[in-house]
Amino acid sequence: MKVLSLHSLGHDSGVSYFEDGRLVYSMETERLTRWKHDHRIALAVRHCLAQPQVDADGIDLVAVSSPVRESVLRIPDLNRAMAAVNGGAPHYRTTCDLLGRTVDCVIVTHEVSHAALALQYAGHPDGCLVLTNEGRGQISHSSLFQYAEGRLEWVETEPLPWYGTGFGWSAFGYLFGFGKGPSVAGKVMALGGYGQPSTAVRELLEGIDDRILSDRAMAERVGAELLARPGFVQDFEQRADCIATLQQMFTESVHAALAKHIDAAGRDDVPLALGGGCALNVVANAHLRKRFDRDIAIPPACGDAGHSLGAGVYALRFLYGLPVEPFGVYLNGEAETEDEIRETIMAAALNPLPYEPAAAARVLAGGGVVAMVGGPSESGPRALGNRSLLGSPDVAGMRKRLSERLKEREWFRPLGAVMRTEVFQELFPGAPPSPYMLFNYDVPEGLIPEARHVDGTSRLQTVGREQNPRLHHLLEEFERMSGTPALINTSLNARGRAIAHRAHDALMDFRERDVDLFVLGNLMAYNGGRARPPRK
Fold this sequence. Notes:
The chain has about 525 residues and is α/β, with parallel strands linked by helices.
């Protein structure tokens, strides 16, 4: 069976293609256009259908998460479909027009798509409890699902108060002047590390009516009142305390919602999975994993960028009873050929050389910065070695160089780090790994200082040889030369751009900036006079 699945309307649009239960191709629109959170799905659809491994004429089913962009998929009964979805139906079966022919179509409700993807990464354990949590879904901000006896059941809608959803993060981001974009929540969360939870702030936030989730006029009025309140958020310290309090309340409310259903299940080993953009909250994730004393499954594309995957998984597994092969994280597009990369390097007036891990490690051990592109791109917002900027966490000023100067991010935002799984197990015995950089860890003072946040934690990625052999090998070489057990790892994108997809994107963003070495597929290029090849 051949399924084309889409997230067609809203930010982070994308398309995926499944054949006989196997993910064949996937592409997030923003990787093609470099426009962050791009909604122009038609570009991604045309790109996907043009790929040689995609049988555009043989597609049996189109699966699309709600809401639906009518101009891309002409659905004859769309109004009836959306009425069903808005009424709580997990899906609606219909037809659509694709490439001039009528194709079977299923509209998968937004929250259900999130839940199906989280369950896929969990491995479909019986009894699994899935919480989807975001700024705004189709019919809810948060929903609870349970997977039992092969069925995905919607258990509860809106189990969380307003401060337990993405609404709170977005609202304070707007109040603090960060705008309204999907990236705002991540910026706001970083402030919490600089503050302390406040009883007075908690009482104030707990007193706000949950109706602000649906009453825009009330939300605007409450926001204005908070900004005008003396001594509340007039300076950085007060804002940091506010966000530290919000983080504490958010984490506690999510824990309570899950604990309630775990208690009702009458068993202590209920498997847990998280979906929706709020599953990117590494502080809450780590707390939940510790409190429940079990691992928690979270897709790397837990936000809306994962909808094209989730809709396809749901259709195949829950409508047609077909198993879907596991897929990891490196699945956006395909690797460029060596000839294509060589031409790109030469067009940038650089000298292409065969990639040597030891040479790249020497640059890093000497305090340099490496931009790395290779293979398919990561799914979701985290750079995990295939589209990364790398630097030594032991070199003073490296955080400032990477985050503030190269990427032009706000000064208070932290950076994550990547380390080999076997090294992680030695440094953090008994701690579960984090292959998708979705948990934070308490890091001893003096260990990887430039990747350690002000609160003493770091968002870590753990990588095994089988997961990313090239990155694992580079880490081995770097450790051997420097004695440092990790590298700073941040996404390969300049300010205002989506993560680089091609070698050309990396060079366009950083050719004229303070990057010492580009590692592009099986080639590398020193960046002008910033760093030169070692003499032989």
